[in-house]
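note to self — DONT lose this again. spent like an hour looking for the file last time. sequence + predicted structure for the chain T wanted, 352 res
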Amino acid sequence: MPPAASRPRLTVAVTGLNATDSPGPGVAVIRALRETTDFELRVIGLSYEALEPGIYLRDMVDKTYQLPYPTAGTAALLERLRYVQEQENVAVLIPNFDAELYNFIKLEPQLRALGIHTFLPTLEQLEARDKLNLAAFGAAHGLSVPTSRPLYSAAELPTAAETLGWPLVLKGRYYDATVVYTPVQAGQAFQRLSGLWGVPLIAQQFVAGQEINIAGLGDGHGRALSVVPMRKLTITDKGKAWAGITLEDEALLALARRFAEVTKWRGGFELEIMRTAADELVIMEINPRFPAWVYLTAAAGQNQPAALLRLALGLPVPMMEGYAVGKMFVRYAWDLITDHTEFQQVAALGEL
């Protein structure tokens, strides 16, 4: 690695700093970025809540600014980012939450005018892989996906169960999923999920099998520059991977490359796959950003966040071939100690 003094300095901003039992990707993205040999980085955290742990990881995040919630719209977000840019001169911004991507994509021209580069999917790409449109997406591209239907009220549950069968998977529009086995469980899950995420919810056919996730990076022209598949070893009650291991499997690599080819995907993505007993690969979800376990790609030899940084700056990124098979991650809880004055500063001033 070149010495820090000889590397060009660069400021990058990252969202998704929460690190709960359903963690955001931000901390993992920053951890991978810190290993780049191309730049000496200053990392700006962009948070929505004062208790997002990444704010207080001072060896990872140099300074944090709070953003308005995505529901505040693009004008409020742009105003806040103008202020951040005046203070920090951010070169690249990497959003990591599904719900915020629409605003960031809409603002891409204005951000570029401010000197802030991004490398995000288009609005058309974002919409096409949405959970509500997954069935049509699969049919259009010849990809195997489960049957699903939107739910706008609990009264639609019996019809959905009749069509899709039991058990049934209920999903929030952006996050959260529950497998239900009875009408009573379905009604309770509908109330909980719609209370958290609103409607419509998505009712999805249950598919049994082995859970596999694939992290990838598309160049926007049909190539997957990096593909790293991982099998879940431990899963939380929210269905999130708490441990996983990289796999050697050409069928998984081919599926991710086909996804990038047919969509011309631009930026990071995650395919959530179920491998059935008949060895069929069913795409359960397509996440339009890096997963929370993306640091495993760097540990396995394909640093996807560092490559995305180069793409955002218009720098060349070669195809990444080969990665360490059998590389594992095990997530853990850690009591992060900070001072109440730091929390008060974030809560009151929106900066730390």
